[in-house]
Amino acid sequence: MKIDPRHLAQLAAILEAGSFQAAADELGLTQPALSRNMRMLEARLDAPIFERSGKRSLPTALGRRLARSGLAIRAAEEQAGVQASLWAEGRRGELRLGAPPIVSGRFLTKAISRFLVAHPSWTLDLQVGLVPELQAMLARGRIDLLIGPQSLVDQEARLDFEPLIDDRIGVLCRADHPLTRIDRLTARHLETQSWLVHSRGSLLRQQTEAALLAAGLEKIRIGCEAGATGSALEIVAATDLLTAMPVAMTCPYLEGRLTFLSFDHPLFRRPIGIMRRRGSVLDSGAQWLVEHLRDTA
User: Fold this and answer.
1) pLDDT classification of 151: cutoffs 50, 70, 90
2) Residues 103, 271: Cα–Cα separation, whole Å
3) I want to staple 196 with a disulfide (CB 3.0 to 4.6 A). Which of 69, 210, 243, 249 is the partner?
4) Whole-angstrom distance, CA of residue 18 vs CA of residue 114
5) Domains of the chain by range and CATH?
6) Phi and psi (nearest 5°) for 168?
7) What count of other Cβ atoms lies within 10 Å of the Cβ of residue 251?
8) Which Pfam families does the protein's record reference (predicted)?
9) Which residues touch 235 (CB under 8 Å, ≥6 apart)?
10) What is the mean pLDDT of residues 166-187?
11) Which residues pair with 148 in a beta bridge?
């Protein structure tokens, strides 16, 4: 049986107010309109919800039971109204972010921490993954902002990019690696080494391989494949393996154990910025984070 929830909420208001007229005044209805709605509810139930007692209408047992459901509906409506007001005023909301692993580390977590301090009533959902997956999530509206490399932007997906940091990929190794003692590194030096590479499908891996091949490496000797940034850094710090990492994003993790070699190529350029859906309107929380990233980049 389908019952109009508005009628249940009105029934609860009648019991709370003590009379049809008082409830009608509270609900912004006329007393005849409210009485008509209660008759419609009784017809739907095929059972009385009020009984006459002198000049008063008293609820039946069924009426009292249904009024409890009506109270729950009214409470839910009031709570929804409060939540909507808080969201409209920017005092409560949800921010959905996406970022690839290296960007979601210390660079982004500092901004997230400051956001949560400034917006204690907000929730923040951070999605970490491979950049093609994040791009698809942004295009479909499953996240609000994506912080990542410019090469992630696909014009067909209608994404706009705002640069923050002019980052680049660097060749990373342990601090006392033999290659650190060579003044002029060439592609031949790198070709003799084994590499730790990122996950298949990773945009960082694709860009690195394209740049190294363009720099003159005939092949890349793969010694290890790792998807987790933390694991990759620990392995490189303890072995002779080389890897590729975005320089600005990785510098906080060097800690004297790791260093970047003096080897560069134009295809290593990898600006980091903010991506959003073209034409989208940011709410107050997302706008706050964007402005904070602009100021601190």
Assistant:
1) low
2) 12
3) 243
4) 50
5) 5-88 (1.10.10.10), 94-166+271-296 (3.40.190.10), 169-268 (3.40.190.10)
6) -150, 160
7) 16
8) HTH_1, LysR_substrate
9) 196, 224, 226, 241
10) 96
11) 273
237 has a pLDDT exceeding 90: yes
End-to-end CA distance of the chain: 59
3-state SS assignment for residue 164: strand
Mean pLDDT of 100-112: 92
Q: How far apart are CA 87 and CA 239, in angstroms?
A: 51
Strand order in the sheet with 243-246: 243-246, 169-174, 258-260
Q: Which amino acid is at 205?
A: R
* Cβ atoms within 10 Å of 13's Cβ, excluding its own: 21
For the CA atoms of 268, 273, 277, 278, the dihedral, rounded to the nearest 10 degrees, stands at -90
Q: How confident is the model at residue 75 (pLDDT cuts 50, 70, 90)?
A: confident
CA dist., res. 24 & res. 35, Å (int): 9
pLDDT for 29-73, tens place per residue?
999 999 999 999 999 999 999 988 777 888 999 999 999 999 999
Other CB atoms within a 10 A radius of the CB of residue 22 amount to 14
Specify the higher pLDDT residue, 144 or 93: 144
In contact, 87 and 121? CB cutoff 8 Å: no
pLDDT, residue 54, reads 74
Residue 242 has which token pair?
Answer: 């080389």
Q: Which residue has the tokens 């049809």?
A: 20
Token pair listed for 108? 């982004």
